[in-house]
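Notes from the 1:1 (GR / supervisor)

We went over the backlog. Supervisor wanted to see one worked example end to end before approving the batch request, so GR pasted a single chain during the call. The sequence is below; no edits were made to it. Supervisor asked that the structure be written out right there so they could see what the output format looks like.
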Amino acid sequence: MIEIPYNRQEAYNYAKKWAYQRNPNYYNFDQLGGDCTNFISQCVYQGSKVMNYAKDTGWYYLTANNKAPGWTGVEFFYRFLTKNQGVGPYAKEVLMTDPSLQVGDIAQLAFEKGKFAHTVLIVKIENQNDIHQIYTASHTYDTFEKSLGTYTISQIRFLHIQGIRK
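Structure output shown during the call:
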């Protein structure tokens, strides 16, 4: 395996292009629990160009009926990114104030304590007067440059994508 960098600009560009519409190459899961993690997987894939085809623990999309749980499921996506030792992107959980957190990284939101249910892509970070502002893109509730501060949540976690293995 070789290590390649994650192309954050490509992930951002994809999010900007598709935040308010649906790429016809992917199924829209809005009516089946939400499209948020599917959309963020598309963004991350755009920045990585590598899928992991392990049947149950991988991260891939071929069709709506032939995809890994990690492609569309919030918890499965988290587990894939944080435990992936094979090909594809890998990440570590970091704090919101961690200097490694960048555009193209991920936030996952829990509306009820302990139940993470929404995945968003970080598209802008501002630090002004010791205030850390993070803006995101998402599907299900289609947004681009939505402030994380406008969500009503009980918990949040951040995933810094460290790289890609091919």
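Supervisor's comment: The CA atoms of residues 7 and 47 lie 4 Å apart.
Batch request approved.
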